[in-house]
Amino acid sequence: MHKSPHTMIQSGSVSRRTMLRLGSLAAGLGFGRLLQAAEASGTSERSGVLVFLRGGPSHQDTFDLKPGAPAEYRGEFRPIATSVPGLEICEHLPRLARQAENWSLIRGITHNLADHGIGTSYLLTGNRPGQTVHYPMYGSVVSHQKRGPVDLPRFISIDEALGDAGFLGPEFGPMSTGEKPQYGMPFRMRGISLSDGMTIDRYRSRAALAKDLDIFYRGLESLDEQVRGLDQYSKQAFELISSPRCRDALDLRLETDEESLRFGRHEYGQSLLMTARLIEAGVRFVTVILDQWDTHQDNFNALADRLLPPLDQGLSAFFERLRQRGLLDSTTVLVTGEFGRTPKINGNAGRDHWARAMCSVLAGAGIRGGQVAGSTNERAEEPTDSPWTPDDLAATFYQAMGIDPGMEFQANTGRPITLIRDGKPIPALLN
After folding, report:
1. Domains, the chain
2. pLDDT tens-digit series, residues 337-349
3. pTM
């Protein structure tokens, strides 16, 4: 069976001499041609984006309104029509409403982990957290399964890592940016930004002097998983600094004022603009975190003033940009939080954690636009039919990306681990 160079390194089957021969071959081909060869074999594959609404967005105030419910349940917002007949969403999402034929909605997703930590782990892996198996998050699986340009990380998380690569190993974890982009400000990646006066050439020289190739190659076969992961992180850090493609993708100052304004010059818009640029550059998976959805107090003012308008502007511009550049057909997008919020409004005009009902949005490659799967009862308390789970959501997301959710991995114990243990894809949403 043919093994990729990465697989051969992991298995300890590549000697120092073989690696040097590969390096000589790369030099002979020329770096540009090597990049072209790598891209020709990999860039036709689908990419993925997770837009994570951290804190748990209120499903009944966004995509699952209940205008006929009693006042203490229905809230303050009215529903508006979308471009899909019969589908209504919140009045504060007008741009997304006009694009509804391009995305699909899952209502009535249900689980019972109404805690931010374990709820996030569940929604980001599609498997309930447990003591036996540590499951990888979406981007790590994509990084493991799909190729990408050699001068780019396959998996980037804008801001921080929400989890890790689980049983796949740390080398498939995300390269985290360490902060979110701000309009008009130079973007600095945590720990790897070049200091004042330090050029790329000087950095390369310093890095070359610091590396002892003999020590690096000696004993490579015996490196354990954690050491390999650290080396992979260092390699990615250098690639981010030295790769013009990645540095340009992270530099939002290269965008026109008009485009920056289209996304919105707020944190949501700029984060989604950077996500678009990373996908355009060839990054295989991007996670972007949009914060402040934990609305225990003042839910309606928070949503109307500082959460829904920037989400509507940034996400609609993101979908439109991918469509205009021919990338929506090759990029699968999932928009979700970790749970929903209580059907009944609390004494602080807020809504608390509620995992028995929530909703998520899917769009792009492999997804049939304009569809609605599932529903909740008249007070948005629980599913009425087809009670989908985060496992089903994950299975649908993977299937749309061309990854078999039933695939098996071999554990250290020798027993196989199924990628999505309990979930099944939702047929109505898939092309």
Report:
1. 47-429 (3.40.720)
2. 999 999 999 999 9
3. 0.83
